[in-house]
Amino acid sequence: MNIYSNALAADTHLDVEGLFTEGFGQYDDWIDEMCQQFLHSNDSCDPIPVSELKTLFTDTTMPAQQQSMGQYLDEFQHQILPHCSHLASPTYVGHMTSPLPNFVSQLSRLVMILNQNMMKIESCRGLNFVERQVLAMLHKEVFHLDDAAYLQNVQDANVNFGCFTSGGTVANITAMWVARNQRQAALQASGSRGVIIGSELMHYSFDKAADLLGLDLIRLPFDDQYCLPLPHLKQALSEAQSQDQPVVALVAIAGTTDFGSVDPIAEMAELARAQGAHLHVDGAWGGAMVLCEEGKAMLSDIHLADSVTIDGHKQLMTPIGCGLLLTRDVATLGNIRKEAPYAIRSSSLDQGRFTLEGTRPAMALYLHAAFHLIGKSGYGELLSKSLARAQMLAEMLNETQEFELVHAPKMNLMVYRYLPQGYRGRRLTEQENEFVNTFNVALQKRQRALGNTFVSRTKRVTNLYPQQPLVLFRAVMLNPLTTRTHLQTVIADQLVIAESLEREVRDQDLDLGGMQ
Amino acid sequence: MNIYSNALAADTHLDVEGLFTEGFGQYDDWIDEMCQQFLHSNDSCDPIPVSELKTLFTDTTMPAQQQSMGQYLDEFQHQILPHCSHLASPTYVGHMTSPLPNFVSQLSRLVMILNQNMMKIESCRGLNFVERQVLAMLHKEVFHLDDAAYLQNVQDANVNFGCFTSGGTVANITAMWVARNQRQAALQASGSRGVIIGSELMHYSFDKAADLLGLDLIRLPFDDQYCLPLPHLKQALSEAQSQDQPVVALVAIAGTTDFGSVDPIAEMAELARAQGAHLHVDGAWGGAMVLCEEGKAMLSDIHLADSVTIDGHKQLMTPIGCGLLLTRDVATLGNIRKEAPYAIRSSSLDQGRFTLEGTRPAMALYLHAAFHLIGKSGYGELLSKSLARAQMLAEMLNETQEFELVHAPKMNLMVYRYLPQGYRGRRLTEQENEFVNTFNVALQKRQRALGNTFVSRTKRVTNLYPQQPLVLFRAVMLNPLTTRTHLQTVIADQLVIAESLEREVRDQDLDLGGMQ
């Protein structure tokens, strides 16, 4: 007898209306069991490697008849659950998806029953105002307008402190859309394509935005601090001017996803203003750092931005699907305002007038709950500890001879690589680096396949070898439950795998060339 | 003592890590109570009118300290829950948001714990393949490719049967993006703006798409069946040709949101093909009808489309946030392919290479569950009953002298209006229609404010008075629990309100002019 025998015994086939009237409370314990099963395992428990998983999901015919909940959960538990990615494991330190505080799971039941649509006031009533309130709360932490400005605008339906989006990508696209529409006159006058300028480290959502909006995207090489170099920017601006290309937006990154670096926001804001361009700060990762003291110092100029992207589902600990675009000026989103007399009326309170998306779920409720249940002090503590955890890992890596840390962490993430024996403590040739790259790819792939620990992988030009991209591990300190012991486990795991890889290479059992 | 006294008694302040380690099971009953409270009330239970709700949500300072779960739920229950919109009430027949089958609420706890990110294989593993499988299942119902095509492509990571999006808007935008990129050569050669052509009834997401993509949008007047008229289309095509404007896409609507009409897909597909343009079918509302026999007949040509939008959160009964774009040709989404060597690698299995959005939640799990727990037969039954329910309401309206039905329902929705005494059974002048419009606005607003029943409102030119837009009620038959009695309640509610409005107008207690 296991925990779900009772549920299976009570399992009944309902008619289709029954799905809407009957409760499914008898399955609660079973679902709890699955939650616990998931939280206390990791990818190593999956008996099937990723490369073979596809063979399990080839039936493409919609089930003809209804299954019962018991049948479905049984299938789910055995055929789907074991193959999910264990992002919340404290030894998985490569993702930007956090474990969620446990209240989210309980609250989600209510949020699903409510199933409010934030596009229109008619389909969300009071939550329309809650969403605006939550946006204002975060806006205040970023832009620090005076209290009167918040009181005046928070519930004025014709202006916005920003909007919720499905994620940072849609927030960044929305920012670029606003920026382009603001420059419409200049664009028409010049007849040339407008440009977005930022560093090479800009997220690839800006490639999407540029493609969608018909703009050119200029990615400038970064400086020795992994920041956008102002001299290069000035040169790019004067080139754009000489080619009569209106500059639509400058993009400053607040927390690059590989290095944690922050671009020079104040200087970029000034340059943008002089051009009539929009300054957008992509703080999808790092923007939330305004909620801790150390972060505030790193982001002291963020209030100078015209708009800021922050992902709730990264450092604000909400479920995935919670992006935010904050705009300093409450009139900014008016540049993309759309109405429809049959649906989104001009005189309405509908937020749908100001968003790229239409129908939207009430993700604001999760952020609202987090603001209350974690609180500003709780976020401060979580973020400070993440920064300290990054320093700790950096020190642990520096103490080894096997690992090479690319730079002291600027935020709560860092990149590093493994150096095989014979490649340590000296300058490497290009060919040697190629070998080390290949080795690190193999190491990360095997670590991922074994599934006990996880660090992600990137490939970047760094200050170590400015002419050559290096394959690097990326460690992200986001999980509040990751301890020193967990980090030691991650490092030990990599060392053991590396040693066996080195042996295989030596014994010619492994052809690294085939693993690129 | 109420149900949550125990929970409050056991309420504890946790340290911030405790939020990630402690369960919140002691609050389950309380949350259940809130779910039931919500499901068994309606907007009439909200003591505060929408116009005054904003005064409740003006505090814009993030809470400094953590609240306990008990404190938060107490606030939630009293200060937020009463003000949500009761979309699931069986007498609310104006929304396109359905009540959800009860298994969704239970499953959501698990989905939240998993918190998988569908963008990358590393952060969703097996769910990557489940998502592709679910897309293929729905694709098969729409496009009916042969079994070999499904088997060959379902798990081939370099092609797609489509993609999940946050909603129909992003699906429509993605379709137009694909279409424009396919026409890049023609657009560059001509140097003119490309055009999207469809009927006036196109969703306003196409205005967003046109603005984003730098395209012109041509909205043709509809014919007497509320469909796109082919002669007008042919004329528009030849005008575009004479102006050397490449036609990027034709948009056929499968289930207009006010009339339920379906554009002539087969003829439009042929015309699109002749132009080298993309034929997109916006089936956000009506596309799901392929799952019932009557709907299949209405949509017999939908397989000729190049792409089709369907919203899971409309007639497929998933929570909000579940849009789908299906593409007939598995290579179509290659037109918007984006990669990033540091994140979304070219050789990976990552779905993020082919989506407008980046990080995405596992909404596919809700659709997967619905496909199994409702099944094709269950959907067939639900959809057929909705169509029958629409016929029933139409008959009920036709039996009254007070209501004027604009047309026999083509799908499970319809528009109608109330005719005050003295305005019935005869042709009205323009001025009289203006009065009737104003009256219907007032009627719908008061009905919404009272909150016992709900029908939405639109304003459209119709065949009744082809020169003048009429204010109309829109009734949507989506809720499986809506019975004849509920519909009688809706009608009776409107009649009582109308009668008192007429009396107030007669007694000059009400100035309708101020209510436009």
TrEMBL record, chains A, B:
GO MF annotation, one: pyridoxal phosphate binding
Needed cofactors: pyridoxal 5'-phosphate
InterPro entries: PyrdxlP-dep_de-COase, PyrdxlP-dep_Trfase, PyrdxlP-dep_Trfase_major, PyrdxlP-dep_Trfase_small
UniProt KW Transferase keyword: yes
Residue positions where N6-(pyridoxal phosphate)lysine is found in the record: 314
Keywords assigned by UniProt, alphabetized: Aminotransferase, Decarboxylase, Lyase, Pyridoxal phosphate, Transferase
Pfam family, one: Pyridoxal_deC
UniProt GO BP: carboxylic acid metabolic process
Any one Gene Ontology cellular component term annotated for this protein: cytoplasm
Stated family: Belongs to the group II decarboxylase family.
Name the record gives this protein: Aminotransferase class V-fold PLP-dependent enzyme
